[in-house]
Amino acid sequence: MAPRRSHRKSRLGCIQCKRRKIKCDETPPPCGNCRRHDIECEYAIRPETRTHTPESISGDVGTTRISNPQLPAGNVQPHSHLSVAPTTTTTPTTSTSSADQLDIFSTFMGTNLRFTSDLHLHDLELMHQYTTQTYRTLSNNNEHEEIWKDIIPKEALEHPFLMHGLLALAALHLIECNPDENETRRKYIELATMHQHLAVSAFRPELSNITISNCNAVFAFSSLIAVLSFAFSRFVGTASTGEPVAEVLQDFFLFRGVEGVLTSFFDFIQRGKLGTLVRRAENTGVGIILSKDIIDTLDYLHGCNSPSATHSSAEEKQAYNYAIRELRISFERPPLGWETVFRWPVVLPESYLALLKSRKPMALVILAHYCVILRRLDACWWSKGWSHHLFKAIYRSLDISWAPLLKWPMQMIEYNENMDGHI
Hints:
- The chain is an all-alpha fold and 423 residues long.
- Helices cover 52% and strands 0% of the residues.
- The chain has helices at 15-20, 32-37, 98-102, 121-132, 142-156, 160-177, 183-207, 215-235, 244-262, 266-271, 275-278, 281-284, 292-303, 314-332, 343-347, 350-357, 361-374, 386-397, 403-413.
- The relative contact order is 0.06.
């Protein structure tokens, strides 16, 4: 009987071939068998970590592989007679395919999960704009800046209407930074329009259900309303339609509505993280002494509304006197705080707003004097030129007989009746 041929076992094959009890060709994964069957191939010891040279001495795991170029092929001396000097050890050479190089990323990925990207890059761009630039333009008070930068964006994460408001404002700010009419500017106009619509649509239901949990977000958004309104009119809205009085009147009603709804929550807000915004300048600052020209102008305005004036009824005169008196108080507020600009619209009587809505001449004249206070915001990108734009609309709508009452605000606004400029 012929002697049984010895079998040289290899313990270096892939795990899959060992399980199937078939011979593995030990090529870099996948091996030939796994490649044919299209199955995962895994080695306990990766083949590329082993030395593969023609002169290698094969053996079991752990066998030292030595080559001696001075010996003829096939004549390998026993280890005890090897000369150390001429013997060289072949450095393993790793030949890794691009697929193998990328295989390391599989350790960071789930095997059975299917993910899709939901990055809204435009919105991320807008939030970056807000947190790096836009927040600085919402107040000239350093303490307020920190609130607009850190606290309010965190609040917006829980209240979508506030988040949309911040993104709309950032888009409007980017329009200001891109004055040329191009595709980029049109993109920001579209984003501003979308976020403004989403913000207002989501904000309206909140006004009828203000609670402890949302009052801070409602107050923050209400503080943004004026900025959004002025900026939207400048860049996107109807500022060029020739009816800025209607727009500013709409803003007045909006300011007053939010102010009234939040009144019962002011104490809570003041004790909270937005408290600094509630403590307005008129509550902490000292009134300024009015200049003689302002005093004389307001006295003249009040005199033109005296009982002897024939252009108004007694009820109208009473509403006008109230508006003039509050206008004087607003002039006395320190001009450093932008928030003082919005005091007058909030404290006006309903009767005066009704007269303004009807475009009564005296109501428009008083509004023209308010433009001097509104001009304090000309340094802001979001309201630059609005006082001039509003005064021009008032001036052009009144009969020439009212011109003497408009002389002082015209000088303060630096308006020339021959100018045709736009905001």
